[in-house]
Each structure stands twice: as C-alpha cells, then as structure tokens.
C-alpha cells in the first residue's frame, strides 16, 4: 500500500476543510484582538501616554499573531487551489484594500514614536485605526458575499471568469456581516485591553467592550434572520461523489430556499456553533461588567469561534457557491488538491502547527502582565 492511501481521499478532504476553519478561527482570535485594539485606540486613549499603553499592549505579539493569516493563505493555496484562484482573482480589489491596511499598520507601529510632534502621532494613530477597521469590515463583507454566492463561472476549458465588481460586494447583507465582524473584534480588543491595562484605559475599554458585545449579539442575530428570510442557499442536486476528481463541473447544483439551514435540521448538534456565537458575547458582556478579565477574553474568543464555525456548518459541503452558474460552485468534494498532496501537507502540518502553538504560548506566557505606563513614561521599558 502506498503511504498516502492509509487515509482515504474523502477523509483528507474533510480534514482539510476542518483545518481551514481552525486556521480562520485562530487568525480571528489572535490577530482579531490586535485589529480590535487598533479600532479602539482613538476612543480609549485620550492622552499620548494612554495611547502608548494601548499600542504596547499588542506591541510584542501582533507580528506573531499574523502567522495565522499567512498559514491560512498558504493552506488555501495548497489544499484548495481553485478556491484560491477564484477568491484571489474575483476579490482582487478587496484583497488589495485589506493588504494596504495591513501594510500601513506595521508602518504606523514603527514610525509613530519617531517624533514627538502631536500631529505626527495623531496621523499614525489614525493609520492604526484604519489598519484595524478596514480588514475587520472587509473580511466580514467577504463572508456575506460568500453566503449569497459569488458571480464566477468556468469556461469549457476550465478558465475562471468573474463577472462582479468591487462595489457590488458592498451590498446590504454583506455590509451587515461586515458590521458583525467589526463589532465582535472590537469586543475582543476590549477584553484584551482589560487584561493588559488598568486605570482609565481599562475602564473605557470595559464600557466600549460592553456595548460591542451587545452589538455583536444583536447584529449576529439580525444576520441570521436576514439569511433565513432573504438569502437563498445552494444544494447539490446530483449524486454526491466524495472521492471523485477535482472538477466542479461534473456535478449539478441549484439555488434552494433555506438551504443554509438544512444542515442544522439534519444534524442538530451543529447548533452548538451559533449557540456559542450568541452566548459567548453575552458572557463576555457579563464578565466585563463584573471586571473578570481573563474569563471575558475567553468568552469573547468562544463567541468569535462560534460565529465563524456556524458559517462553515451552514454551508457544508459548499466552500464558494457561484451565483450565476450553481454547477460551478466549489465544494469540499470537487475542488481540492490531489490525494497525495493533501496527505503530504497533513504530515507537514502535524509537525509545524504544534511548534507554532508552542512558541506562541511561550511568548504569551513570558510577556503576560499589564503594561506599565510609568515604565513607558520613564523610557525604562516597552518598545513603542
């Protein structure tokens, strides 16, 4: 037996679908509080010292947190090449906007403290806000468009054509999903600031985080209702072949009212994900009001995980549906890399993911504790 045949093609496809979800959750939870902190910067930091405290709360970890974004992009490229091709070409301008914001953010971290001019620092503070708000909003907008279906198709020779535009992505339902994303990351950033700061900054973070937690629940529930009432899902109408070739055009699919809720009806245990999406922010709100710092952070993380995983649970086995040719929709069963490629990547992942988790955990352990404003003022500690 060839080694990679020890695990069936169907199982490997399912494993990699789960891994992509885990990587997205990892990115949203770790880099999410970085983005949320950036959004909160102008509101919780009223003086230059307070803003330096906020920036230094994420200063030692923001670069390491972005490894999850890199891993996610690399995993999509290697495991789901057709998804990578369609999304990175169709969402090219949206991806470009996100990348510009993510590039501006580290520049702002490095350059803000180079001069003491208040106007200079105010401009870089604005850049940090934009670097947090734009990726949070656009990522949510992207998810909203995926749920509605993306206007792409394949030619007879499998060339990809995208018939949409950047501004078409900014439709009402997608913007609602974008607001869910912004609210949940602001909540997460506020819970992180509760852990890392004290005094006035922590108090303001508690207030803003409480509002963001309630907003997350309301907006997420509203998005669920809108999905049920106004957004049609997709379902495969031909025989499902789980170990066939990676050619989306070999199946048939159709638009179906309420399709995104069929998995929840067929498998009631999947309601766990949206339950976490609602209960997590509510618990975060309660813990923020009670000044329970670490439980609030964990509850916020659980809520984010629930919201993201509920999308995957609703859409399975679809990954990227096509709104103009449902047959071209990409699913878990017809858009992956080869059997051997998935197996080799799984072996590599089994080696490197534990290493990444280990060194990330070590960094957080070493740098745990609150940011000392006096040490910043005396220039005896902290980098920014």
Task: List the keywords.
single chain, 384 residues, mainly alpha, two-stranded antiparallel sheet, two-stranded antiparallel ribbon, 14 helices, 68% helix, globular
Q: Would you mind describing this structure in some detail?
A:
- With 384 residues, the protein is mostly helical.
- The protein has one domain (12-378).
- It is built from 14 helices and 6 strands.
- The strands form 3 sheets. The protein has a two-stranded antiparallel sheet with strand order 1-2.
- Strand 1 and strand 2 (160-162) form a beta hairpin.
- The longest helix is centred in the first third of the chain and has 36 residues, at 9-44.
- The N and C termini lie far apart (56 Å).
- The model has no long low-confidence stretch (mean pLDDT 91).
Give the structure's gist in a few sentences.
The chain contains 14 helices and 6 strands. The protein has 384 residues and is mainly α. The protein has one domain.
How much of the residues is beta strand, in percent?
under 5%
Number of helices: 14
- Which strand order spans the largest sheet, edge to edge or round the barrel? 1-2
Instruction: Give me the Rg, rounded.
Output: 22 Å
Give the topology string: H per helix, E per strand: HHHHHHHEEHHEEHHHEEHH
Q: Can you tell me the number of structural domains?
A: 1
> Could you name the ranges where pLDDT drops below 50 across 5 or more consecutive residues?
none
Helix percentage: 55-70%
Helix/strand-derived class? mainly alpha
Query: What is the makeup of the main sheet?
Result: 2 strands, antiparallel
Average of the residue pLDDT scores? 91
Q: How would you sum up the global shape?
A: globular
CA(first)-CA(last) distance: 56 Å
Number of strands: 6
């Amino acid at each position: 037996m060839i080694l990679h045949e020890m695990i069936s093609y169907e199982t490997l496809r399912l494993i990699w679908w789960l891994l992509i979800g885990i990587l997205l959750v990892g990115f949203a939870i770790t880099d999410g509080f970085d983005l949320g902190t950036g959004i909160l910067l102008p509101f919780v930091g009223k003086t230059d010292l307070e803003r330096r405290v906020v920036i230094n709360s994420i200063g030692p970890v923001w670069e390491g947190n972005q490894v999850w974004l890199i891993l996610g992009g690399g995993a999509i490229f290697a495991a789901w090449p057709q998804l990578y091709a369609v999304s990175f070409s169709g969402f090219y301008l949206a991806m470009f906007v996100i990348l510009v914001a993510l590039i501006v953010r580290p520049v702002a971290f490095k350059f803000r403290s180079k001069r003491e001019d208040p106007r200079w620092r105010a401009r870089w503070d604005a850049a940090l806000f934009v670097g947090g708000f734009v990726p949070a909003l656009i990522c949510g907008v992207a998810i909203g468009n995926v749920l509605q279906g993306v206007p792409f198709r394949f030619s007879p020779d499998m060339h990809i054509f995208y018939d949409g535009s950047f501004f078409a992505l900014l439709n009402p339902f997608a913007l609602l999903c974008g607001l869910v994303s912004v609210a949940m990351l602001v909540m997460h950033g506020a819970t992180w600031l509760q852990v890392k700061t004290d005094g006035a900054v922590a108090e303001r973070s508690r207030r803003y985080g409480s509002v963001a937690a309630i907003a997350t629940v309301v907006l997420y529930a509203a998005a669920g209702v809108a999905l049920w009432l106004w957004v049609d899902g997709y379902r495969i109408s031909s025989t499902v072949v789980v170990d066939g070739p990676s050619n989306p055009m070999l199946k048939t699919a159709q638009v179906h009212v309420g399709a995104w809720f069929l998995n929840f009806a067929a498998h009631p245990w999947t309601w766990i994900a949206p339950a976490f999406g609602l209960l997590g922010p509510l618990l975060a709100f309660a813990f923020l009001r009670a000044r329970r710092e670490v439980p609030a952070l964990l509850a916020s993380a659980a809520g984010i995980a629930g919201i993201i995983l509920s999308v995957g649970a609703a859409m399975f086995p679809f990954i990227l549906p096509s709104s103009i040719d449902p047959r071209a929709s990409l699913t878990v069963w017809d858009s992956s890399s080869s059997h051997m490629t998935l197996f080799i990547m799984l072996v590599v992942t089994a080696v490197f993911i534990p290493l990444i988790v280990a060194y990330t955990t070590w960094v957080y352990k070493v740098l745990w504790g609150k940011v000392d404003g006096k040490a910043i003022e005396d220039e005896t500690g902290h980098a920014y």
